[in-house]
Amino acid sequence: MGHAKRLTGLALTVALAGSLAACGSNNNNGDSASTKDNDGKAASNNSGTDTKATGNNAKADNSADTGIDTSKFETINYVVLGDKPKNGQLEKVMEKVNAILKQKVNAELQFKWVEWADWQTKYNLLLASGEPLDLITIGTDWLDTWGNAQRGAFLPLNDLLEKYAPQTFTEIPQEDWDQSKLKDDIMMIPEDHYTQWVNHGIYYRGDWAKQFGITQPITDFETLGKYFQGIKDNMKDVVPWDVNGTNGTLYTGFETAYTNNIDLPIATGFANVFTAKSYEERYTVDSPIFNDKFIDFAKLMKEWADKGYWREDVLNYKGDTRTELKAGQTGADAHHTQTFKGLRVDMDKAQPGSELQMFSYSDTLGNLVSMPITHGGTSVGAHSKDPGRALMVYDLIRQDPELYHLINYGVEGVQYEIKDGVRTRPAAYDDAKDGFYTDFWGGRIDKNEIPADTDWSGIGDIYAKYDKIKKPFPYGKFVFDKSSVDPEMTALSQVVGEQLPAILFGKAGDPEKAVKALRDKLNAAGYEKVKAEIQKQLDAFKATDQG
């Protein structure tokens, strides 16, 4: 539920020209399909070169310079979120990546995929398993990073970074390292030099909206409902929004568009139960679920369900809404701005004249807070067999342009080519055969990005709109210690996961009774106890934050 990441180290004009792909979009560079609805400048590229490596026991070519013994060959794993590509291109690209890594640090990199089906549970179980994980994708606002850190999942990096990841260590300012600490320990490397907006909302077809008499951009749920009704009335065999029932975007939409609440970095599974009351009252705990307006919103969702704006079996539907949108089989999709900037280009090709638009939830009230610099990043597993080598690999794939381009874009001449400084598709490119992604959302950096023709040219206007209303993220140094309420937090997460989806999609029966039942179960699970503990810690944070 994060919103926007600040610019670091590059001018805005360069950032807007860059590829700027986001976590949770189709992939890390906006090209192939690894979909989850829950997120520079050109440099010389020699990715097509067959880099020769020496034997497994050879010392890497930079060992003498660093004084680090890399004589033992290591395999470094990297936990990423997404469905592993199945067309063979990942293996071809990684063969080139690993040839370079072997030569430089006598190691190879293997991605360990946490697939999107039940991803939250799988990710947390993997981190709790004690398995020797080396590099781990993290996100403090969507992957329960602080909770996992408190449970001992990650290795403190204070004494390792300067030696094993010197370029990254020097590049990141102290204030950003301070926001990456649990107490005095650095627990993650923030993806703080990569510009992105992950402001959530719903995509809709501008051509259809005009056909239904909606001539101004949609900025509220009431007008969105008129758009859906227009599809019901005029588009045969089209589901207005053929949404996957595990999508929690409507809760994000309610919070942002109907309340003044802002997110706290405190995860409770499917949806965050606890927020701050408003930006002005950011040290006061609140909850959208206990807002009277939530009942009205639940009624609206029941009305939409009864009118057939999504399929009857929405809670069990596992289809791909984005693919259906491109095929003209549905009129909406939902995710964030980074996905939109690439999807708009795709839709212009797949459905010419569709004029895909985005109703950002912040359009309603201007309720927009910049996201944390730790929305993306990388930690080292507490049981890593060689954390030093893991950090050496990370430093290279973040800083070395050749490796960066391979991991983010693939092989030049196969996955992309560069024309006039812009990344584009080769004439013979076929997505099913040639598509590639790694879902590398833990170390992207603007200086190594190559602008792409897959990014919509009008995205700068949306960014400018956001820049006018955004507020700075206020919780960079706030880490909630849930040790005293961990059982209650687990119980709250279970309740929202079981009860909330049916309310959001109008399948819970009478809305007032359903909301009351949800609130009662949250109270029974320890809502007030957890709220009091959060408030206690926020009060202490306020005293420190305000000096």
UniProtKB/TrEMBL annotation:
Residues 43-66 have a biased composition (Polar residues). Gene3D superfamilies: Periplasmic binding protein-like II. Residues 27-66 are annotated as: Disordered. InterPro entries: Bact_solute-bd_prot1, DUF3502. Keywords: Signal. Residues 1-21 form the signal peptide. Residues 474-543 form the DUF3502 domain. It comes from the Bacteria. This is DUF3502 domain-containing protein.
